[in-house]
Write a structure and sequence with these properties.
By secondary structure, the protein is of the alpha/beta class. The protein folds into 2 domains: 7-180, Flavin prenyltransferase-like (Rossmann fold, 3-Layer(aba) Sandwich); 190-286 and 293-401, Rossmann fold, CATH 3.40.50.10300. The protein is 34% helix and 24% strand. The longest helix is centred in the C-terminal third of the chain and has 19 residues, at 383-401. The two termini are 27 Å apart.
Length: 402
């Protein structure tokens, strides 16, 4: 999509990821956008203003009190000019200022004055990102409508490994594009999504679960809502926040998931089952915490849980699209093809969870879309981008049924 005629105000703060903002500026200019860069004083320690001026063809603003070439209150002018206001990288410091209305430099003053959509791409040490102060600031900003992309997990410049790395420029660009040129092809559709693990109770303090983080399902729900759908997300226990515009329905066990999906699935136009329900659950749940008794082993008797996807397939109505997931460790495509037929699915998303970049609790995925007509494998993509690809194909199937 072209961004011709769009104005992007790009705030760059003081972090090593500031160099990635140069590539982002270049991508935006190539797409036709006008880019106006505001740099904090600390940002200029990492990248010189001249770099951004060359890439954007506009002066990089660094000083609230600099004498302008033409008379205007510059931070107000930039705030009004923005079609979207992007901060990349967004440090913990700027997020705190935004959350509490502090305006003590050009960037914080301008973002406080803008009425444009705001997109933040956080970048910081894992400890800073996970600190309760940062988490509360982010939650408050999301509640006010600020959108976030990332941060991602990986190796950080400080030498640590964890969440805190800024999203890649391509991913940030895609988010900007979705804000400026929103795809609204799902207006009026009802989409039901499942996500996350289930927990099968053993006793009052223990349970059986799996490593699903819920990130894929949440990304699908968020993407569908952005495209105009009315989205319900049935979610097992995760550490994720329900996306804006999505109705969350919390569940704990596979039986809970079965009950909710049985009650809700027939109301949906598209059902996407990305949750990872348990196949087995304890046959008996102890009323009290189970204690060790000597040196002997303990046998835990398990019984099968109800097959949620199969039940949804049995309840499928004409014109409805059902999408399933097959997270496998061997014979991935063969297992996926078997589930496609057995569970009456229109499409199944298969992935090998042992592959780097495609396992549990990572920000990327490598998937193969399997339908009765054939297979299509995508490269390793961020889960948000993979969600969009999935929705594109689900919409194509739905259109073919109408």
């Amino acid at each position: 999509m072209s961004l011709e005629g769009k104005n992007v105000v790009l705030g760059v703060t003081g972090g090593i990821a500031a160099y990635k903002a140069c590539e982002l500026t270049s991508r935006l200019r190539k797409a036709g956008a006008q880019v106006y860069v505001i740099m904090t004083k600390n940002a200029t320690e990492f990248v010189g203003p001249l770099t951004f001026e060359t890439l954007s063809s506009h002066p990089a603003v660094t000083d609230t009190f600099a004498r302008p070439d033409t008379w205007e209150v510059e931070h107000i002018a930039l705030a009004k000019r923005a079609d979207v206001f992007v901060i990349a990288p967004a440090t913990a410091n700027i997020l705190a200022k935004m959350a509490h209305g502090i305006a003590d430099d050009m960037l914080s003053t301008t973002v406080l004055a803008t009425r444009a959509p705001v997109l933040a791409a956080p970048a910081m040490n894992t400890g800073m990102w996970e600190n309760i102060a940062t988490r509360e600031n982010v939650a408050l900003l999301k509640k006010r409508g600020v959108r976030f992309v990332g941060p991602e997990g990986g190796f950080l410049a400080c030498g640590d490994s964890g969440v805190g790395r800024m999203s890649e420029p391509k991913e940030i660009f895609d988010e900007i594009e979705s804000i400026l040129n929103p795809k609204r092809d799902m207006e009026g559709l009802r989409v039901l999504v499942t996500a996350g693990p289930t927990q099968e109770k053993i006793d009052p303090v223990r349970y059986i679960s799996n490593r699903s983080s819920g990130k894929m399902g949440y990304a699908i729900a968020e993407a569908a809502a952005e495209r105009g759908a009315k989205v319900t997300l049935v979610t097992g226990p995760t550490r994720l926040e329900i996306p804006r515009g999505v109705t969350g329905v919390p569940i704990t066990s596979t039986q809970d998931l079965f009950d909710e999906m049985t009650a809700r699935c027939q109301e949906a136009d598209i059902v996407i089952q990305a949750a990872a329900p348990a196949d087995f659950t304890p046959a008996h749940v102890a009323e009290q915490k189970i204690k060790k008794h000597g040196d002997g082993d303990m046998t835990l008797l398990l019984r099968q849980t109800p097959d949620v996807a199969a039940q949804v397939g049995r309840l499928k109505h004409e014109g409805q699209v059902l999408v399933g997931f097959a997270a496998e460790t061997n014979d991935v495509l063969e297992n996926a093809q078997g589930k496609l037929k057995k569970k009456n699915l229109d499409m199944i998303v298969a992935n090998d969870v042992t592959s780097p970049g495609a396992g549990f609790d990572v920000d990327t995925n490598i998937v193969t879309f399997v339908t009765a007509a054939g297979m299509e494998t995508l490269p390793c993509l961020p889960k948000k981008q993979g969600a969009q690809e999935l929705l594109d194909r689900a919409m194509k199937i739905l259109t073919g049924k109408r």
